[in-house]
Structure formats: C-alpha cells, structure tokens
Amino acid sequence: MFNEYYRDLLEDIRYRKTFSSSQIVKRVLDEFKDIAYNSEDINNIIKTYIFLTPKIIELRPTSALLANSLKKILSGIVEARQKLSREVIVNIIDNVRREIDDNNHAVAIMASKRISNGDIILTFSYSTVVLEMLRNLVKEGKKVEVYISESRPEAEGLLMAEMISKLNIPVTVFVDSAIRYFMKEVDKVVISCEAIASNGAVVNKIGTSEVALAAYEARVRVFVLAQTYKFSPETFFGELVELMSYNVNSLVNKEIEEKIGVRVKMSSPIFDVTPPEYIDAIITEKGVIASQAVPFILREIYNWPLKIQDTNLIIKELARVVK
C-alpha cells in the first residue's frame, strides 16, 4: 500500500524530476503535512514517516538540506511525544519550512549586496536561492547580465536560463565545455550547492568543480549560497557525502549504444566536489564566511563536542512513540 500511494513522490526524487534541493524538500514537507492531515490517527502518521524517511534520504543522499530537515522534524516529534497531536506535528513541519524560507531569504539578500551594478554573473545548474538573489537585484535596480552553461546531461541550465529571462535579465547560454572560454568576461561566479562538508568543500552538480577551477585560474571570485541546513555535520567525523550517478541510459539511446559497442564503459556522475581553496566565500543566513570557518559554524550549531543524532537512531526513538 505504501509503495503504491507514495510512488509519485519517490519517483520524483529518484529520477530528479525536481532539480532544486529547496524545491524537493518543500515537496517532501508538503507530503508529510498531507499525511498528517489525512491519516486516521497519530500512530499511522508516525508509522508512515518511519517508512518514508529512510527511503527518501537514500534516494537523494547528497542533499544535506533534505536529511537535516527530516531529522529536525522527526526529532521535534520525539521531543513533543507527551503532548503529541495532529496540530503539533503540522506545526513542527511548518516551522521547519518557514526556517528554510527565511534562511534562503537572508542568504539571497546578503548575496545581492555582493553584486555590483553592471556585473556579469556566471551561475551553474538550477538554484532557487540564486534566482531569489537575482530577483533582489531587479528590485534594487541593479543592471546585471547572467552567463550559464547547459549543465549536462539533464541540461537544467536551460530551465534556469528560462527563469532568469522571465526576470528581464539578459542571459547567455552556452555548452559546458565553453566555461573557460567565457570566464574571462565574468565578474563574479554565484552558485548554490547540495552540501557543504566540514572542511568547506562544496558538493554540487557535476561540472561545478570545473567552473570553480576556471574562475580560480581567471581570478574571478566564487560565491556559494548555502544556508546552514546544507552543512553536513557528519563529515566532521570523517563520513563522506555520497555522490550519486545517473542511469547511463540517460547518456545515449539504444541505437547509439549499439554503434559504440559493448566494450565501451559508460559512466554519468551527478555531483562532484569542489575543493575549498577554489571558493572565495560561503554566504549563509549567519553571514558571509570563508570555507575555513565551516567547522566553527558546525560547533556553533551543534555545540562541542558535536551532538549529532543519527537518522536511524532518531527513527528508533520515534518508533517508541507509537502505541
């Protein structure tokens, strides 16, 4: 029953029909609210959350925003177990969503202050918070131009370009291999990410590291827009952010595959890791920080020694709430 009812949600995550990390989190939170509203009782709500949470995180393991948001919701339910009700659960979800929106808003405002009138901005892939920053620039009356590559193999850069053009901002789209060619015309690189590791490394759509390397070579400043929900505290203890790969069928169709021959190995990673030395600043809701300051932000959030709850342990605690 569970698999059938939530198939659309899980397939949306599995096949990356939603590119933005913020958008997929909001989709999941909306689903969790619907579950709370439509379930017969509290026990059924909790059982459904216990079933869905590990599956959702497994399908998008790179998204720190998704994992941290779900952990906060489940932890909030555990803490409220003595006074738990449908309204309490919905309120916990709403608070997390409001916090994410507020954080993105703060990040976008701070980022827009780093952009000068007349700047040519290069961005990469699809980002909700970068779009919000660009809207702020329009409101502020700043005239900018945006360069963006296609971001293959899914080419979400084309969707991003469409959204930017709707803001009446001049936008130029080019093939990914032309990043270095266009970098000499760029004033600033502004990107978002899936996760920030404890050493300041940035996990984002495959090709981001080439963008940052080309910018570093051309002495163009690189800004990463990332609210602290995107910080991965587990990496402080040596855990790695799991990088996903596409199904290779997304690279070539069957006819081309047959022409290439069976001996050719195909690979299509989704994300890569950009070293912190290629990042000039990370813009968070807490302020603009250097990559080297990420461990201090983690300590501020989780105290010292870091008190990080494992998702599986939270789920076990949640299971005890069920009567």
Which descriptors apply to this entry?
alpha/beta, 323 residues, 3-stranded antiparallel sheet, Rossmann fold, globular, 7-stranded mixed sheet, 10 strands, Four Helix Bundle (Hemerythrin (Met), subunit A)
Tell me what you see in this structure.
With 323 residues, this protein is α/β, with parallel strands linked by helices. The chain folds into two domains: 2-104 and 309-319, Four Helix Bundle (Hemerythrin (Met), subunit A) (Up-down Bundle), CATH 1.20.120.420; 106-302, Rossmann fold, CATH 3.40.50. The protein is 48% helix and 12% strand. The model is unreliable at 236-241 (pLDDT under 50).
Distance between the termini: 21 Å
The CATH C-level name of the largest domain is: Alpha Beta
Helix share, percent: 40-55%
The number of domains is 2
N-to-C SSE series? Answer: HHHHHHEHEHEHEEEHEHEEEHH
What class, by secondary structure content?
alpha/beta
User: In the CATH scheme, what's the topology name of the largest domain?
Assistant: Rossmann fold
Amount of beta strand = 5-15%
Write down the Rg. Answer: 21 Å
Mean pLDDT: 88
Largest sheet: 7 strands, mixed
Q: State the shape.
A: globular
Tally of helical segments: 13
Could you give the topology of this structure?
Blueprint: H1 2-5, H2 7-14, H3 21-38, H4 42-59, H5 64-79, H6 86-113, E1 120-123, H7 128-140, E2 145-149, H8 156-165, E3 171-174, H9 179-183, E4 188-191, E5 195-196, E6 202-205, H10 208-218, E7 221-225, H11 254-260, E8 271-274, E9 281-284, E10 287-289, H12 294-302, H13 311-319
Parallel strand pairs: 1-2, 1-4, 2-3, 4-7, 7-9
Antiparallel strand pairs: 5-6, 6-8, 9-10
Helix pairs in contact: 3-5, 3-6, 4-13, 5-6, 5-13, 6-7
